[in-house]
Amino acid sequence: MNLTSSIPPLAFRPTVLAIATLCAASAAAAQQASLLEQVVVRGDAQRSFSSRDVQVGAFRDQDPLDVPLTNNVVTREVLDAQGARTVYGALRNTAGVTRSQLSGSTYDNISIRGILVENRGNYRLNGTLPIVNLIDIPLENKDRVEVLKGASSMYYGLVPPSGIVNFVTKRAGLAPVTSIESSVNNHGAVDVHADVGRRFAQGRMGLRVNAVAGKEDIGIDRFDGDRGLLSLAYDWRVSPAFTLKADLEHYRKDVSEQAAIANPPAVAGVLRLPPIPGNRRNLAGQWQRYDAKASNALLRGDFAINDNWMVTLETGRAETERDRRYSQFQNYDLATGDGQLRIFFANGQRYTNTNHRVESLGRFAALGVQHELTVGYTYNQREAYSGDSAPVANVAQNLYHPVAPAPITPAAFSRGSDSAIRDKGLYMVDRLLIGAKWQVLAGLRAADYSNTSATSSYSASKTSPNVSVLFKPDPTTSLYASYLEGLEETGTAPANRANNGEILPPAVNKQKEIGIKTRALGPYLAQLALFQIDRPQTTVDAGNRFILGGKSRYRGLEGSVSGEIGRDWSVIASMLLLDARIASVGAANAGELGKIPENTPRRTASLFAEYRLPQVPGLALSAGAFHVGKRAVNNLNQAFVGSYTTLSLGARYVAKLAGRPVTLQASLDNAADRDYWATAGNGLLGASLPRTLRVGMKVDL
């Protein structure tokens, strides 16, 4: 286990006291040199479709072979080969990932294994800071994107068991980096990206800066906008035993928001879906903006007490604000297409996550067994302001022959409400190394949770266990079995229920998994796992109260392969066979028993490969296929959106121009220009995006 490299960062509006404490500790640490031998830098030298380490949860900087859960890593090389720019663009390479509710014109709402990835808790920066996925998270400054599947409450508190999506930032490597990249697409979008990295102070400090500015266009009607990014990643080896890391990023996006389409009402238990709209059609107006900005900051300090013990302090803050003119098309006639576009107005919505963590990691032997013990405490506060709102506007629209809605300026806005969640946890994880082949991982988390809104409040305390056993018959293969329990929030009763505004108590989810991981077949990682997740769900009782009552069960077989096959091929592939059912229900929802949870496909699969032509040095050709099976539009399974497979093609050529490396690249997404329902869930449908050709050039100076 590499304790040296497990050093991510601490705070937005950084706490002066924390910084002073860390700097004072460096003087006392000058004599300690064994745990923090070097600042480990990655990314530039790693040119592989597979990763040798992960940086998520209690498994920071461990080989995936030593992680007794399903995890996937989308490396920088995969992102570059595909020209990926969005969260979904990266995560489509992992099994079980689908879009939910939104089509991706503003940001990606993601489900994994049919379970929604919560936008304020399940997305993390450098393994720790919960960032807010309500604006497209930029990938230009990221080294890789990791996914830890399933229950993750042990390390991350109250989160649903869909999994953790972790973004690892680029850092300054040993070699200087100066690159300028620009691209355009066939719809008129254009952007420019600068990436600069240097080490200085005799290599003890490093700084990586990324800046992006661009005009947005995704090819749908009445859409335009722009976006920008500025990020800094800094590290400082203060002394042989003390290291600091800091990350700052600010990004913004101001674009037109595509309208969603509401499910039509069911007739005699059957819901007839409208025809799939053309992939360029937008029922909303260009003036209906989604204007958002986000700032994330993280500071981390690692202090080696002696050869075997290290203490980590980190603090961070994530803020997201947005103004929104969201609309959904409803109350329509399938024969004529005439219906109603309902427009919602919100100004100044604000979401803030503040996160602090103190953690001790040590190694010791007891009773003939080697232990790697992690003990920590984390404090997370999530505050939200619902925004100033104006009365909803309803305007006429036609599904088949849409017109541009006239701009609407509300006469007045009314103030919204505040809410706050506090999720505190004390956790302990012990990895027992029994000989060279066996590992046992056991952990407990004691959670202290409270949720307060303008109309209700709730608090709870709960202890969650997990245990895993891992066997390595040789250094290239591991077999494992794991059992985890986690807590998740269950929501607030909506306005149409008798207990409107009541906050429901947290619920316990349970996960079992067995699997195998191996590199024995070549320089690539192959994984196969069987899992079962039991998850409580909400329902409605006979008194029209929104309550916890019922359970969903998700059973699946998941596999993946990533890495290099032979000298000239790189591959990343995944598949999921999922049997998800509503296993028990409340009295008022008897019709849902045995049905498939909404927006949950039975099958997903992806395959992307790049071939480097030996006959033409520097030229690589790529192709990918991404499949999502049919999905129910609601828990009653009254209709299904069809399955679809999209194709991607690409080429990139690396040469030298005036002695400088130059990369020319072209990527084609939705190559067949298919129309399909891309999203379902929450009573909404979303259409696909059109074929997009992007060409670009990168110059390394």
Automatic annotation (TrEMBL):
Q: Which GO terms describe its molecular function?
A: siderophore uptake transmembrane transporter activity; signaling receptor activity
**Signal peptide boundaries:** 1-29
Q: Where is the TonB-dependent receptor plug domain?
A: 65-163
Q: Which keywords, in A-to-Z order, does the entry hold?
A: Cell outer membrane, Membrane, Receptor, Signal, TonB box, Transmembrane, Transmembrane beta strand, Transport
Q: Which InterPro entries match?
A: Beta-barrel_TonB, Beta-barrel_TonB_sf, Plug_dom, Plug_dom_sf, TonB-dep_rcpt-like, TonB_sidphr_rcpt
Q: Does the keyword Repeat apply?
A: no
Domain TonB-dependent receptor-like beta-barrel: residue ranges: 275-670
- Subcellular compartments: Cell outer membrane
User: Cellular component GO terms, alphabetically?
Assistant: cell outer membrane
What Gene Ontology terms for biological process does this UniProt record contain?
A: siderophore transport
Chief localisation class = membrane
* Record's bilayer topology term: Multi-pass membrane protein
Q: Which Pfam families match?
A: Plug, TonB_dep_Rec_b-barrel
Alphabetical list of Gene3D superfamilies matching this protein: TonB-dependent receptor, beta-barrel domain (2.40.170.20), TonB-dependent receptor, plug domain (2.170.130.10)
| PANTHER family from the UniProt entry | FCUA PROTEIN, FERRICHROME IRON RECEPTOR-RELATED
Q: Its family?
A: Belongs to the TonB-dependent receptor family.
- The protein's name: TonB-dependent siderophore receptor
Species for this entry: Ramlibacter lithotrophicus
